Amino acid sequence: MKCSKIAKYAIVLFLLGSVNFTMAQSINQDHSFRIYIDNDFLNFRASGTDRYYTNGIRLDYFFSKEKKAKFPSSLLLNISDENNIYGWGLAQFMFTPKHIDVKEIQYDDRPYAGALYAIHSLQSIDKVDNIKITTELYMGVIGPLSLSEQSQTWVHELIDYTIPQGWDTQIPNDILLNYNINIEKQMLNPSKRVLLVGFVETFSGTLYNAAGFGFMLKVGKFNNYFEDYSPITAKKNKFQLYVFMKPNARVVLSNSLLQGGLIYQLSGKNDAYTIEKDQIERLNVMYDVGVNLEFPGFSLLLSQKLRSAEFKGQYVQEVGNITLTFKL
Predict the structure, then answer these.
(1) In terms of CB atoms within 10 Å, which end of the chain has fewer, N or C?
(2) What total number of domains does the chain contain?
(3) What burial letters (b/e) apply to 195-207, b meaning 16+ CB within 10 Å?
(4) What is the pLDDT of residue 15?
(5) How deeply is 309 buried, as exposed, middle or buried, from its count of CB atoms within 10 A (0-12, 13-18, 19+)?
(6) Pairing state of beta strands 317-327 and 52-63?
(7) Cβ neighbours for 237, distance < 8 A, ≥ 6 positions apart
(8) Other Cβ atoms within 10 Å of 234 Cβ, number
(9) How confident is the model at residue 44 (pLDDT cuts 50, 70, 90)?
(10) What is the DSSP letter of 267?
(11) Is there a contact between 122 and 113 (Cβ–Cβ < 8 Å)?
(12) Is the Cβ–Cβ distance between 37 and 321 less than 8 Å?
């Protein structure tokens, strides 16, 4: 109970800090708010399983600023003097085994795990070379302090669905600190209706260590962000409608939501159920497809995510996503 209260106080303090930070920004500066929701029931087949990656929510506030970046913004990669969008956010993600109505540990299956963390981000673009770099700094916790048990239980009670029984066996509390880099490069833009972007990505820290590559194809009516960069104040098409596909592959070195956190692993303890390193699938393949509808002050993105197994014995999983963005 004490851990739960401490985590709740931390969330309140973070939100209050975000409000103060927002108020401190110039009134004339561009800003937007984004709501990002993943759930295994949000898929094209309208069929959910409540297994593996079961839910994720992320809230982001994006803004531009003219002043020189200070700590911790100075830790983020900046390749432009003008085309930069900073962000602060809060995210919670949760994972469960195949059967949530079982109290006991389900060996050879995924352990219960949750993460709660703040995000500081920077999207920076070089319009000359058509390169965009997005860096994100994650700071938070995994384990009971993430409040994933309380969140999933509350939602299931609200919709009168199966109450999860096995959260007592979840991955232990630990620190979460990750630094992620995504580099995008425009490959083809044969017309205003077609855009092909290649990308490479890295993830480093106590949460997740991996590297990957892939591409994204957009078809429809859209603003090319290498030309009209700002996701906050697009100046070309006031109305946008396009479909996209985004396949990519990653080589995974470690995943604390399967193997336990850094402190737990260094302690040498073995009193929690975790996935052994030789059970981890080192090659993960992902495929996203979706549609984006955008108006002058609001956008709606709907997508379907296909994920290959993260550990031996896991099934391929489909997760749906809804992303809402409001220009403030």
Answers:
(1) N
(2) 1
(3) bebebebebebbb
(4) 42
(5) middle
(6) unpaired
(7) 221, 222, 223
(8) 18
(9) low
(10) H
(11) no
(12) yes
Interatomic CA distance for residues 249 and 232, integer angstroms: 29
- Residue pair 292/300 in contact by the 8 Å Cβ criterion: yes
Q: What is the H or E stretch that residue 213 is in?
A: strand 208-221
User: Which are the contacts of 175, defined by CB distance < 8 A and separation ≥ 6?
Assistant: 141, 206, 261, 262, 263
- Residue entry with tokens 């979460």: 176
Q: Give, in degrees to the nearest 5, the angle at Cα 278 between 277 and 282.
A: 85
Residue 4 has pLDDT above 80, yes or no: no
**DSSP H or E stretch at residue 153:** helix 148-158
Question: Which has the closest alpha carbon to 97: 80, 79, 109, 82?
Answer: 109
Q: Identify which of 302, 300, 305, 308 has the alpha carbon closest to the alpha carbon of residue 319.
A: 305
Provide the whole-model pTM.
0.88
- Residue 154 in tokens: 């509350």
Q: Tell me the residue range of the domain where 128 lies.
A: 2-327
Distance set, CA 203 to CA 137, 298, 328 (Å): 10, 30, 31
Provide the token pair at 102: 């079982």
What token pair was written down for 269?
């303890």
Q: 147: helix, coil or strand?
A: coil
What pLDDT score was predicted for residue 125?
94
3-state secondary structure of 210: strand
> Do the Cβ atoms of 148 and 96 come closer than 8 Å?
no
Query: Measuring CA to CA, how many Å separate 192 from each of 223, 258, 312?
Result: 8, 43, 43
CATH number at residue 179: 2.40.128.140
**pLDDT tens, 154-196?**
999 998 989 999 999 999 999 999 999 999 999 999 999 999 9
Sequence letter at residue 109 = D
Distance CA 320, CA 37 (A): 8
3-state DSSP assignment of residue 3: helix
How far is it, in rounded angstroms, from Cα 224 to Cα 240? 11
Other CB atoms closer than 10 Å to residue 283's CB: what's the count?
11
